[in-house]
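Q: How do we represent a protein-ligand complex in a form that can be generated token by token?
A: Start from the inputs.
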Amino acid sequence: DWSSNTISFSPSISPCNPGEGLVLRPLCTADFNRGFLKVLSELTHTGDVTAEQFAKKFEHMKKTGDYYVLVVDDANLGQIVATATLITEHKFIHCCAKRGRVEEVVVSDVCRGKQLGKLMLTTLTLLSKKLNCYKVTLECAPKNVAFYEKFGYTASDEQYMQCRF
Ligand code: 16G
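Then emit the structure tokens for the protein with 16G bound:
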């Protein structure tokens, strides 16, 4: 419920009205040809993903029902300009609860300053609550901590650990 969100937007935008010429919507297969991977490449290494690889991976994600990949489509540019994903992870703990994970939050350089990161984060955080996740988490660079704190995320005392292959 967007009206229950306490984050303020100036100018006022919302999921249904994300700004002039912009549409906030779920990812679709055709977004491969609208620069979806190019936007992701502003975050990290994407590799050379073919249309077939993309379609196969996307079908898999849809089948699980646990991936909510948002994009912002810019009608004037004919391009995807931002994306963020919510994934729900299933647990036995907390009465067989779900945990939300926010991943791949990227706003293209061509579309900075339009509150799109804020819009996507607010949307996905509200969605994780709506989906009854007992918590929602994300990993981010130290320089982005202050940004995520605005949405109620707090630094955990737990250490984030990884093993890279
Ligand atoms: C950031 C992203 C994470 C992404 C990772 C990729 C957010 C909130 N965090 O941590 O989702 O998977 O970067 O970096 O967007 P990597 O390629 O080094 O794993």
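The chain has a mean pLDDT of 97. The chain is about 25% helix and 25% strand.
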